[in-house]
Specification:
The chain contains 8 helices and 8 strands. It is globular, with a radius of gyration of 19 Å. It has one domain: L-fuculose-1-phosphate Aldolase, CATH 3.40.225. The chain has an 8-stranded mixed beta sheet, sandwiched between helices. Helix 1 runs parallel beside helix 6 and helix 3 crosses helix 6. About 45% of the residues lie in helices and about 15% in strands. The protein is α+β, with helices and mostly antiparallel strands. InterPro entries: Aldolase_class_II_sugar_metab, Aldolase_II/adducin_N, Aldolase_II/adducin_N_sf. This is L-ribulose-5-phosphate 4-epimerase. Its EC number is 5.1.3.4.
Amino acid sequence: MSDDRTRAVERVKDEVCALHAELLRWGLVAWTSGNVSARVVGADGADDLMVIKPSGLAYSELTPQSMVVCDLDGKVLEGDLSPSSDTAAHAYVYRHRPDVGGVVHTHSPYATAWATAGEAIPCAITAMGDEFGDDIPVGPFALIGDDSIGQGIVATLDGHRSPAVLMRQHGVFTIGKDAKAAVKAAVMCEDVARTVHLARQLGQVERLQQHYVDRLYDRYQNVYGQDGAAAAATPATTSEGESA
């Protein structure tokens, strides 16, 4: 492995290890459940790798050195510990979604309750329109151990704005451009799952009209935040440098 490649892997191991603390911080996992993985991009998009949590290790025991490096077929390339039991599912997502740089799995209680009921979370609040741009869908039931869960994730999210899927009677999987974005999606998934559940205890919940969802999603993805606000505030220019 080249020096640049080694440095890239080490950076991702540091990041993935640190992000597992966010799962605990936001109450998304219990005991040793849940995992975060991240893609390590290879030269010219080839030979990508994956860094993932080891199986069954307590969160308090996780270190960058304990993270496991695999190829995108799930074969261990570096690490003394066995990788997560969800490795095949993560690897399948990376192989079939080159836009995905991070995958997260949790059993967060409210979102997993929706998954257990086999019910999509309706896009009924503006925060869902912002982050998910749609309902959070339900994927098929699949057993752990091979890439069946990954197949369900990819098929369910194909053409869907949501970065989260509720795998039936299992839990939550989220994807993102990187591991941090996937963790954020997992945090927000649990937050909106809780809010919509509580709202239903008070009465009927109506989904937002689609044109509102579209406007919310567009604003949040393209204007919200410092980069988006700066772009929105900068006048467009013509090829001659004049303001459009």
